Amino acid sequence: MSAMPKFTKENYFSLSKEYFLESIKDNSFLQKLFTDMDKILPVYNTIQYSCMYDDYIEISNFIGYSPNYKNNILIGFCRPAITHEIGHLVELDDISRIFKKDFGIPYAPEKFIRSSAKGFFCALAREQRVYSLEDIMNNAKSRSKFENPMWEFMAADRCPFGKFTKIEQVKDWLQSIIQQTFTNWDRDRIEFEWFRRLGMLKEKLI
Fold first, then answer.
1. CA-CA distance, 103 to 95, in Å (whole number)?
2. Are 146 and 152 in contact (CB under 8 A)?
3. What is the rounded distance in angstroms from the CA atom of residue 117 to the CA atom of residue 123?
4. In this predicted model, what pLDDT tens digit does every residue of 14-36 receive, in sequence order?
5. How many Å is the Cα radius of gyration of the chain?
6. Rounded to an integer, what distance in angstroms lies between the CA atom of residue 63 and that of residue 203?
7. Could you please report the per-residue DSSP string of 154-188?
8. Which residues contact 139 (CB under 8 A, 6 or more apart)?
9. Residues 54/105, Cβ–Cβ less than 8 Å
10. For 41-64, what is the mean pLDDT?
11. Residues 27, 65: contact at Cβ < 8 Å?
12. Which secondary structure element, helix H or strand E, spans residue 74, and what is its range?
């Protein structure tokens, strides 16, 4: 892949898309999702993932996704951020959340660390589903969120809770979520939901 280009305020959006398309040449599925994207609707890079953050500080009230910023959809044009945000977009049961910044998911690390057991395990289940969808998109071996020790530590710190009396039960639960996600989803379904939901977003932008 070519070296990261120099971004300026004038060329930021065009270069970020150009660099992104170069970065996904090894993934035919992602290429398919972004073929002729400009004919569908504008999808630009979120500023937080670039060196231009200071120049666009006014949009810092979201992290990875904004459904309508100055008539553009902003989503992270870098990897692995892009597959993560696609995963969130396609897996939401509550469609109304695709019209909210960061899909209505509050991002406050200091609050998340102190979150309730119920809130934490809901977040863990959601992030595991998205993690597995990323693996499907990347044609990769399934992974557990507990590969990041922070998640396992926080889960253990909240046990016992509900049906969980020990961390081993949480690990088994995560494996069941992985299995269910791989059973219920494939690239065809991800592609269908991606374009279906982009169509809904386009209607809001017009």
1. 9
2. yes
3. 10
4. 656 677 777 788 999 999 998 76
5. 18
6. 23
7. HHHHT-SBTTBSSHHHHHHHHHHHHHHHHHH--HH
8. 29
9. no
10. 51
11. no
12. strand 72-75
